Amino acid sequence: MVSWNRAAERLFGYPAGEAIGSPISFVMPADRVQEENQIIDRLKRDEYIDHFETVQRRKDGQEFPVSVTISPIKDATGKIIGASKSVRDISDKKRAEEQIQTSLREKGSFVKRNPSPGQKQFTSSDTLGLNLNIAPVAFSMETAVSCGQLINELVSNCLKHAFPNGRTGDVTVELLSNGNDTYLLTVSDNGVGLPPDFEVGKAESLGWQLVPMLVEQLNGTFELQESAGTTVRLTFSEIHYKGRI
């Protein structure tokens, strides 16, 4: 380790004087050291490692999830002489993912089936498929909770109303980053669709009555599309509080 900035000091708890001169593995848990060796081998092959998720360890022994980006450093001749490593704490992201997964698990008993690249796919005993495409995003706890509640209501509505009388089909949940600190949440199904006179907020379903309130909490806007089922698209940003009591 030849460089250690203030952000690294805050993240890991080691002052620069203790970190500089140490091997890269000094912040790795014992069961992750081989993983770091594999990364070094990739760097030797001139590979760029982008947003690799792993676990690292603070000075006090606490382990925490991180997203790591590493790129080789070359001299004037193109020879690799080192590596630049950027580490981001993704603890909030993992809590958000768990909130989302918990909300989804509460809506039915799903198991994996034939996942496609970049997606997780599940099915239930009722032959309803669930496709998840969740980008690596990091939310505050407030945003994670509101987002999880919204997904909970939207998926619940799909399962209650989109597939009557044992109808089969799929529910898809996507959460993507739009850049500029905004995000796109999409919940869709290929069920029977909504009634012609349906109005969000005026529906008899409590879930649909709650949706506008949850969208407002997320400082978001949403659109409802009906084509081969129902699609709800929500664009939102982080919830920022000035402080907590």
Your description of this structure?
The structure is a single chain. With 245 residues, the protein is of the alpha+beta class. The protein folds into two domains: 84 residues, 2-Layer Sandwich (Beta-Lactamase), CATH 3.30.450.20; 146 residues, 2-Layer Sandwich (Heat Shock Protein 90), CATH 3.30.565.10. It contains six helices and ten strands, in the order H-H-H-E-E-E-H-E-E-E-H-E-E-H-E-E. Strands 4-5-6-7-8-10-9 form a seven-stranded mixed sheet, covered by helices on one side. The chain has a three-stranded antiparallel sheet with strand order 1-2-3, with helices on both faces. Helix 5 links the parallel strand 6 and strand 7. The longest helix is centred in the middle third of the chain and has 22 residues.
The CATH architecture of the largest domain is 2-Layer Sandwich
Provide the CATH top-level class of the largest domain: Alpha Beta
- Structural class from helices and strands? alpha+beta
Number of strands: 10
And the CATH topology of the largest domain?
Heat Shock Protein 90
SSE topology string = HHHEEEHEEEHEEHEE
Supply the number of helical segments: 6
Main attributes?
245 residues, alpha+beta, Beta-Lactamase, Heat Shock Protein 90, 2 domains, 6 helices, elongated
Could you outline the blueprint of secondary structure elements for this entry?
Elements: H1 6-12, H2 16-19, H3 33-44, E1 49-57, E2 63-74, E3 80-89, H4 91-105, E4 110-112, E5 120-124, E6 128-134, H5 141-162, E7 169-179, E8 182-189, H6 206-217, E9 221-226, E10 230-237
Parallel strand pairs: 6-7
Antiparallel strand pairs: 1-2, 2-3, 4-5, 5-6, 7-8, 8-10, 9-10
Helix pairs in contact: 4-5, 5-6
